[in-house]
Design brief:
Elements lengths: L1 E5 L5 H11 L4 E7 L2 E5 L4 H10 L7 E4 L2 E3 L5 H12 L5 E8 L10 H11 L3 E2 L6 E7 L4 E6 L1 H4 L22 H11 L9 E5 L5 H8 L3 E5 L14 E4 L3 H7 L5 E6 L5 H10 L4 E12 L6 H9 L5 E6 L7 E7 L3
Helix pairs in contact: 3-4, 6-7
Length: about 325
């Protein structure tokens, strides 16, 4: 199977290293753009996405199977509709996602809307934002790559794995960090049904607290620095102006469904603090940690953290779109 993948430009070599480490059949073809690569594997798209999640392969952000390679002629849109007819269930909802390199062989503007027309004529329901199936189209300098998958197989429902959460949306906005947690909860499929209580360590100015509130949780926010004025007075928040270590000593009775940590600490120190709260999580509870990576970090630092999570179990780890020099790690307490 040929496939397109994306990653941060600064972590391209790490991405290739991880693919080769966990998939002996992986063959790298080349970079189509600064953050977009083309490769081959003996795995199908379902098996590849499962490997990425379970290994985990941390530095890949998004993939899609390049089912067909097309030339930029008058026939390629018809051929995309034919791909859907041959692969997707008749009448299903298809989301069309178009991306392009810096010097594409055809202009990408308006292409998703043009592709949607023959899809509708073929009996599908085009939806440019949400769909049961995702038709991914990547326009390179000389060719057009396309494949049909879904959000699970692609690792993300977003085009190229690049979520867009508008400041004017229902998410509201306190800080950019809010989007990091929103993306993590979505990417690792954390079901908030039944999650009533949350602990936010290193909460200020409150982006992660806001994201938790938006999903119906009551939040204990811990940070020596103040929360954003928009959050002060919210009765769903208990604010403790102190360090995580002091809070742990003073307040030994509360339990939580989820603990989140975006503190500006070395990766091993953040993990060590969260592990001290293991007994405060309910059975099956989650911990979401941002592992901060120093410039020129060593890959062994991350692997050491992954090896030191017990008694937690690893749900997943990935460098998400809203991570910069960071990796998001999601853990779970044994049920």
């Amino acid at each position: 199977m040929r496939f397109i993948f994306t990653c941060q430009e600064a972590c391209r070599e790490l991405t290739l290293y991880e693919f080769k480490l966990y998939d002996p059949s992986f063959i790298f073809t080349g970079w189509l753009d600064r953050e977009v690569g083309l490769a081959e594997t003996a795995l199908d798209n379902t098996a590849l996405s499962a490997l990425i999640r379970s290994a985990p392969i941390i530095f890949v952000r998004h993939i899609f199977a390049a089912d067909i390679t097309l030339q930029p002629n008058d026939e390629f849109i018809t051929q995309l509709a034919a791909l859907c007819s041959a692969t997707a269930y008749y009448g299903s909802t298809v989301s069309v996602q178009v991306r392009a390199c810096e010097k594409p062989c055809i202009a990408p503007e308006g292409l998703a809307e043009r592709i949607a027309v023959p899809l509708g004529e073929a009996g599908f329901t085009p939806d440019l934002k949400e769909g049961e199936d995702i038709l991914s189209v990547y326009i390179a300098e000389n060719s057009i790559y396309a494949g049909l998958g879904n959000a699970c197989e692609n690792l993300s429902k977003w085009r190229g794995g690049m979520p867009f959460y508008s400041k004017s949306s229902g998410f509201g906005f306190v800080s950019r960090a809010e989007y990091k947690l929103a993306e993590a909860l979505e990417s690792f499929n954390i079901n908030f049904e039944g999650i009533k209580t949350a602990l936010d360590l290193g909460a200020a100015p409150g982006g992660w607290t806001k994201a938790l509130l938006d999903r119906g949780a009551a939040v204990i926010s811990v940070d020596p620095n103040r929360l954003d004025p928009s959050l002060r007075g919210d009765r769903r928040i208990k604010y403790y102006p102190m360090t995580a270590e002091r809070y742990l000593k003073l307040c030994a009775t509360e339990s939580f469904n989820i603990i989140v940590d975006d503190m500006k600490l070395d990766a091993d120190k953040s993990l060590a603090i969260v592990k001290r709260f293991y007994g405060r999580l309910v059975s099956g509870g989650y911990a979401v940690i941002t592992l901060k990576l120093e410039h020129g970090f060593c890959y062994k630092t991350i692997r050491d953290c992954m090896s030191a999570v017990r008694p937690f179990e690893v749900v997943g780890a990935r460098q998400l779109f809203h991570n910069r020099s960071e990796v998001t790690l999601v853990l779970q307490k044994n049920k």
